[in-house]
Prior knowledge:
The complex is a heterodimer of chains A (517) and B (309). Chain A is α/β, with parallel strands linked by helices and 517 residues long. Chain A is 34% helix and 26% strand. Chain A folds into 2 domains: 3-237, 3-Layer(aba) Sandwich (Rossmann fold); 255-483 and 497-516, CATH 3.40.50.300. In chain A, helix 14 packs parallel to helix 15 (434-449). In chain B, helix 3 (44-62) packs across helix 10 and helix 4 runs antiparallel to helix 5 (94-117). Chain B has 309 residues and is mainly alpha-helical. Chain B is built from 13 helices and 2 strands; from the N terminus they run αααααβαβααααααα. At the A-B interface, helix 2 and strand 8 of A face helix 8 and helix 9 of B.
Amino acid sequence: MGKVLEMRAITKQFPRVLANDKVDFDLNHGEIHALVGENGSGKSTLMSILYGLYQKDGGEIIVRGQPVQITEPRQAIDLKIGMVFQHFMLIEPLTVAENIVLGSEIRKGPFLDHKRMVSEVERLSEEYGLKIDPNAKVADLSVGLQQRVEILKALYRGADILILDEPTAVLTPQEVEDLFEVLNTLKSKGTSIVFITHKIKEVLAVSDRVSVLRRGKKIGTKSTAETNEQELAEMMVGRVVLLRVEKGPAKPGREVLRLDGVTVKDQFGHVKVNNVSLTVRSGEVLGIAGVEGNGQSELVEAIAGLTKVAGGSIHLSNQDITGWSPLRVRRAGFGLVPEDRHRRGLVLDYSVADNLILGLHGSKPFVHNGLRSEKKIAEHAEELIRDYDIRPPVASQPARALSGGNQQKIVVAREFTQNPDLLICSQPTRGVDVGAIEFIHQQVIAQRDQGAAVLLVSAELDEVLSLSDRVAVMYNGEIVNVMPIEEVTEHKLGFLMLGGRPEEYDANEVSGSADQD
Amino acid sequence: MGDVIAMMFNTAVFAAALRMATPLIFAALGGIFSERSGVVNIALEGMMLTGAFTAMFVTYHTGMPWVGVLGAMLAGGLIGLIHAIFCVRYRANQVVTGTAINIFAGGLTVFLLRFFFGTAGTSPSVTTIPDITLPVLSSIPWIDRILGRQNPLVYLALVAVVVVHIVIYKTPWGLRLRAVGEHPRAADTVGVNVFKMRYISVVISGALAGLGGTYLSIAHLSRFSEGMTAGRGFIALAAVIFGKWTPLGALGACLFFGYADALQMRLQDIGIPTQFMNMLPYVLTMVALAGFIGRAVGPKASGEPYIKG
Lengths: 517, 309
């Protein structure tokens, strides 16, 4: 199998960072080559150069043996290179077929040939096993299907080199599996794929080879079969990484959070959280596992006072906090790492220092005689930046300028240093790189050991399994089961998350093991 | 009261409504091109006014009103080009640029009127485009009294709606137009030249608005008068929104505004204060925008300059 693509000594200088520093990369015919690295390591930049979105400052690109200059996406398309972006490049009010043909329309005289557009899309979707309705509006499709449209867009343009930029970041676990199946189908039909990710498990699951970038430099390329999780993590981060969280047994104390029959409805009156009762004690981590969209977000928002409770009561340290304002709940000893740091956790255009006092900005010592105390704010920022290793360590920078992992560290630093009685961490490591995940996990356990009651909501099974002392599964607005961590297996969680009942699982297990005997 | 009802369904009012709607239709179609490409065009008013002046000016000198129409479209297109250069190339705030163009056009036409004709207020009278009788339509009862005999520009406006509809929804270019106003980066990544699309669209927008102005000075009237567009550019913009950025929707809105305008002129005769009736189209616009059509969602990228890379 020959090389379809070679990139040699690619260099790209951005105003403040060297995004790619003499990076070599190559792609074999019909392989899936994973390109991994932490956020900001230069993976996307490298592929954007290949696709003509950025101009390289140095190096050369060879496609199918021919040196090429790519200065426009158009040229990349002509070279049969397709790219699926992390943020989809789809026009929502248009149909699937219209999105797919845009820019390379099928014409009948001066008009669009709508019939042939649709039949062409149908043909492609059949050939590659990517089922889709060509006449559906993109806005009405799920994220997984929208991604399908993106892949079809590339295939329609004849791409046989396909770049996927963090394609799994927005998908549910089931959709990820579907995607991997699609990638394998494409591979078997001779498409060469570059798969950008920072999730090592995915690399191991789907790729043939893997290249690691760190801070703009290529660290190495390995055959996937000859490497492992630990080695890749170390290559990405540049030091030994603890993939397993080290923690001692929990020492549960008093009851901190008690939910009694909590029900939450959305703006249309649909029940999102149905009669949920739970307790979380100090010194323990209760993990809520579940496929996203099963009421976890609404439950968290109800506790935080961000949404109304339709029924039931919430007690925090024996106080009834049902219906309290978010500020009042916070002051009663509550900290929240919200699931979407951009929407709820940070004001992106504010400085790191100001983000570190959000919610505390009206309290002492940050306010003195009604005015901001710049000195205290700066001292506070300096301390937290140091303790939580926020990089770059510049308090005056806008939060927007930081990587996802460091943005999340700002939120974690702010919430954790208040030493709340109740700490809710919702998807605490989403879009965060390996090094930062390790750090945030350690901090969560440290909070637990200091006596906080921690409620962890996560779609990542690994995270729930490694941090929790007890695990609850949420499905369709209800808590299906709460069990101590010793009784939990990944398989059982998966079963319950997809709507299985605990009784059924136990029954299946018994008959299953009987079959084996 | 019976008088009013009778008047509301009078064919003469319908015919007048069509005439009043004509300049709005052209300008609204222009607005659709511009907004669909992602450029807010609040300058429709100024483009119409420039068109109205140029149509009169060229007709005055050539004696040929159709040459005046051509001139007005060129002048409108030129103003569109200026708008596009500021908005697309220099990424200026589109509302501010549009407002500046409106003020500029208001001043320029007054200046030119005085400079060339030495008069303030109105220009000398010029040749107009005469009304024509359409053979088929004029033989259908009832319809003939509305559509049978009208100005060619009225018919042209109706044809233009159909043409623009086809261009936007049935051609590759139209697909690209809808794309660049919604998600320019997506269009760019599949090789659509966003800047070129926007330049062309805004120039077309200006030409159509200029054509709308033409109707005022050399068809409806036979002269140019200062500020004769009297806010029609803004009404056309409202029609774009009212019609949800679609040509057929905008046509409906323009006919509706034209009808309110025509009715208003008639109702003045029966003792309702003019001022109230003058408010009618505007009040209806606000009511319509606030409630009837629900939230009007325009092209997502409208108003935002595109920055490559």
